[in-house]
Amino acid sequence: MKINAGLNTQDINDAINRIKWYKSFLQWKLEQFVSELAEIGIEVIQDNIKVEYDGEVRNFGDAVTFQKDIKGDDEAVTCVLIAEGHPYLKEWLTGSAKVNPLLMAEFGSGAWAIGAAQGTFPNQKHANHPPWFWRDMQGRAHMSYGNEPSRPMLKAKEEMEQQIREVANRIFGVNA
Q1: Which domain holds residue 38?
Q2: Nearest to 90 by CA among 79, 99, 77
Q3: pTM (2 decimals)?
Q4: Is 176 a member of any domain?
Q5: What is the mean predicted confidence (pLDDT) over 158-173?
């Protein structure tokens, strides 16, 4: 943005007002930018929240609510994604340990878990003896052979990183 101004009071005040307007405009554009990237991430997460039990692969994308919390000030714009499971999916009970299905989708469970040996979850006695069973929050028993990690959060991060330039070009109208 180029601003030409004379040295009189009116020209200086006009220049200040144009700078204030541009600052607000840039803030609005930044909020659009982080919001669009967040939407891309949410879509990827919803497509990849897969957990297998009772002999079926189920996608919990419809059973998890996502919010984005965008905050901006004079220094920066931030966006936080918040994932919340519906009450019947929020926590699973296996033995005496509570498990979040989003974590099971991200890291796997039972024989499929990555980064840990099977059966190492606290008080998990039967995860390495397929099938194993867990109870939902209503007390219903479900059978599982474990869950291969579908990595929804990792995939969302990777997709958002790949889309940064394209989204920036679209929002700001320049090659970033």
Answers
A1: 9-169
A2: 99
A3: 0.74
A4: no
A5: 94
